[in-house]
Amino acid sequence: xxxxxxxxxxxxxxxxxxxxxxxxxxxxxxxxxxxxxxxxxxxxxxxxxxxxxxxxxxxxxxxxxxxxxxxxxxxxxxxxxxxxxxxxxxxxxxxxxxxxxxxxxxxxxxxxxxxxxxxxxxxxxxxxxxxxxxxxxxxxxxxxxxxxxxxxxxxxxxxxxxxxxxxxxxxxxxxxxxxxxxxxxxxxxxxxxxxxxxxxxxxxxxxxxxxxxxxxxxxxxxxxxxxxxxxxxxxxxxxxxxxxxxxxxxxxxxxxxxxxxxxxxxxxxxxxxxxxxxxxxxxxxxxxxxxxxxxxxxxxxxxxxxxxxxxxxxxxxxxxxxxxxxxxxxxxxxxxxxxxxxxxxxxxxxxxxxxxxxxxxxxxxxxxxxxxxxxxxxxxxxxxxxxxxxxxxxx
Length: 395
Hints:
Layout: H1 8-16, H2 30-36, E1 42-45, H3 53-56, E2 64-67, H4 77-82, E3 87-88, H5 95-111, H6 113-121, E4 139-143, H7 147-158, E5 162-166, E6 178-179, H8 183-189, E7 192-195, H9 209-214, E8 219-223, H10 232-241, E9 244-249, E10 273-275, H11 284-304, E11 326-334, H12 339-347, E12 352-359, E13 363-371, H13 375-383, E14 388-393
């Protein structure tokens, strides 16, 4: 089941592998999803669907969740792990799309194109250069120097911007980018500040009234990361006072679950403020790439048991040797003392051709290839262990 109008590439990929696919344009409410998720083996979502522990409790057949986007904070990852459900995402495929949007918005803010365009549509011809600037020679401050931040930095340098960045990790600068030792240093120096960080306790309300006050008078703030990162009332106050010359906001603390025509926000109608409905990664190219990548990850899990790129699961991946005399058994179990001994005591009675076990603090994940004549016996014995969460014979 695919929600939120996931790319047709994903639908086609699943159908080619024999899946029966139900694809819906929007998200579902919690009560609707609790009903629809029964019997579903793979669930695909984007950023609006919230997958809670109570929803997962109704997922009686679920093998995997695919987040067809960068983030996974819309899924209760620990709950999915405890229930033996790997979660996959696409952390890089829309990086270029987000970086291009930010660069376009930097130019639009510098030339006040939003306000000028609105005026022209209202019949106002107002040609002047006041408060309009080239971006060449200005300083761009990037908060979060991951895949989006680095792509943006490369493109920005080509446009003549000087790139600064701040990240909690010790990352190597690319090109002529320069690392700032603190967030405060970046805020004080940059003409444009753009956020590209995940949603964590560390980044919650990261840019508030204090941080904006550190920014240069006449600078610009952009956020296309998560709605929890920037304090919207603080942005409003800074725009109204003239401390900020403009802002571009693509993500918000609360966002509607479906497209609506009566959305409101306190930044509406402020001068030189660009508001977009969480479209940073919403290009056809990005959605096609994401659709293909996440679909392939889920199919690989279903066909081989691989969890190599799961965000909440021990990483296991044994090559599929296609031997007709071999069956593969998959087991998810609680990571408790003695479980490995119990599993090996069982496997010691059978002919094991390949075995891999990985653990996290909560669970262990086992892939084992055995002779096909004994696979059901192995499955039954391992499944009977008190520590077992989920066991299945793959082929």
